[in-house]
Amino acid sequence: MPLMTGDQYVESIRKMNWNIYMAGKKVENHVDNPVLRPSLNCLRLSYDMALMPEYEDLLTTTSNLTGHKINRFSTIHQSVDDLIKKNQMQRLMGQMTGSCFQRCVICDGSNALYATTYEVDQKYGTSYFENFKKFMIHVQDEDLIVGGALTDPKGDRTIPPRQQEDPDMYLHVVERRPDGVVVRGAKAHLTGITNAHEVFVMPTMALKPGDEDYAIAFAVPCDTPGITMIVGRQSCDTRKLEGCPIDCGNVNYGGVEALTIFDNVFVPNERIFLNGETEFAGVVVERFAGYHRNSYGGCKSGVGDCVIGAAALVAEYNGVSKVSHINDKLIEMIHLNETLYSCGIASATLGTKTAAGNYYIDNLLANVCKQNVTRFPYEICRLAEDIAGGIMVTAPSEKDLRNEVTGPYIEKYLKGANGVDAETRLRALRLVENLTLGTAAVGFRTESMHGAGSPQAQRIMIRRQADLEGKKAFARHLAGIKEF
Ligand code: SF4
Ligand code: FE
């Protein structure tokens, strides 16, 4: 099947039999729901851009499985160039949406599973690699989106899955049948899951013998019976219901996350990619995390471009764009943002081939990238708020601007320098607010902290991969110290 248009994608999502709850109610038509539609629009754009000649090179590629033309988000990386292009595509998509655009999990999850299922089969003679390749051909040829499910609720963090008082605190197999397994549990923070056709489920961490029922990886359609999604709320989300697009800051695009319940969900054998091989749980998680930590160098720098642009616009509208300390702050924001991108590109550039034949990023540099992402967007936001001024959070609503009594006052007193009208200035201020404190702040600020793993997870990986003994040897050599 040829690549879908954005409209075809939207209709393909509409046709599915969803089980989504939000704000205490079942959502009957989430495709047209004003709170959820902006997140769908990001994915829709990823389809439309793939069909535009100017973006074709970045957003499409050739499948190593079929030779067919596919969306780059669904590719199995065949070279370092593929890894670099993923980051370039993510930066572009971040710039176009000012938001988490939600499609990267398929790319990062599928490459992690491709490399890992191959290795499991080599060791155990299983057929997970074949299962996985068949699944990916289906995804690539139908031009589907696959969401990713990793993070279990975890219960008491100090004890392993098998010892939890409630065994469902980690998703696990509850029944084994000749034709498949039945699983139960929940996965948290599922990015873009209400806009995906299928969902990959993987373990959340390394597991030990005794946790076999928790060492399960598979994919099922998002409307499989037993799956319930509970949408997470975002700061200022109900502004989208007020009919005031200016107050939303970025009314067309946004992200979505949901707590997703798997209540006795059946998984057929051909959709199982890991089933009890506990020593590979940590391998697949580490690979996925590495790919996704590299991805943040692309997407967050793209959204960072929007934050920097919005702050620069506010400065211009206030007539202070030539003031030296304002310029210095913008330079600092650019420096931080390009550092994030550099880390992503560096970890892609030093990528290497796996035994399965796909390419994997440099994991140490990917973790350094994500560790920087837990910090720099906060400083970029701080500087954007500094430049924007307090009016960013005290400005009246669009309804006041449209009111016949208050409107003229707002137009008179909130206009900017050099003939900039109040509405133009308010639009830029609301965008800064949206990106730093509003719905997009989930994707730019807090997701920068916790998405793809919280900061401590990267510090553990950095320590594990940095050759400290090698560094000590360099120091001993220079200092003339003999080894004990
Ligand atoms: Fe993609 Fe970034 Fe969103 Fe992850 S956080 S899905 S890498 S846009
Ligand atoms: Fe994320």
What does this protein look like?
With 484 residues, the chain is of the alpha+beta class. The protein has a domain at 283-468: Butyryl-CoA Dehydrogenase, subunit A, domain 3, CATH 1.20.140. The protein contains 18 helices and 14 strands. It has helices at residues 6-14, 37-50, 56-59, 80-97, 104-124, 128-142, 245-248, 281-317, 324-349, 363-373, 376-388, 391-394, 398-402, 406-413, 422-436, 439-450, 455-465, 468-479, and strands spanning 20-22, 25-26, 60-62, 69-71, 146-149, 172-177, 180-191, 198-201, 216-221, 227-231, 257-268, 272-275, 352-353, 359-360. The strands form four sheets. Strands 2-1-10-11-7-6 form a six-stranded mixed β-sheet, with no helix packed on it. Helix 8 packs parallel to helix 11 (376-388). The longest helix has 37 residues, at 281-317. The termini are far apart. The model has no long low-confidence stretch (mean pLDDT 97). Residues 100-102, 104-105, 191, 295-296, 299, 447, 451 line the site of iron/sulfur cluster.
Q: In percent, how much strand structure appears in the residues? A: 5-15%
The CATH topology of the domain at 283-468 turns out to be Butyryl-CoA Dehydrogenase, subunit A, domain 3
Which percent bin holds the helix content? 40-55%
Assigned CATH architecture of the domain at 283-468:
Up-down Bundle
The rough form would be described as globular
- Ranges where pLDDT stays below 50 over 5 or more residues in a row are none
With helices defined by DSSP (H or I, 4 residues minimum), what is the helix count?
A: 18
Main pleated-sheet profile: 6 strands, mixed
Total count of strands: 14
Average pLDDT, to the nearest integer? 97
Q: What is the CATH top level name of the domain at 283-468?
A: Mainly Alpha
CATH superfamily of the domain at 283-468: Butyryl-CoA Dehydrogenase, subunit A, domain 3
Helix/strand structural class:
alpha+beta
Bound molecules: iron/sulfur cluster, fe (iii) ion
Strand line-up across the major sheet: 2-1-10-11-7-6
C-alpha termini separation = 66 Å
Radius of gyration: 24 Å
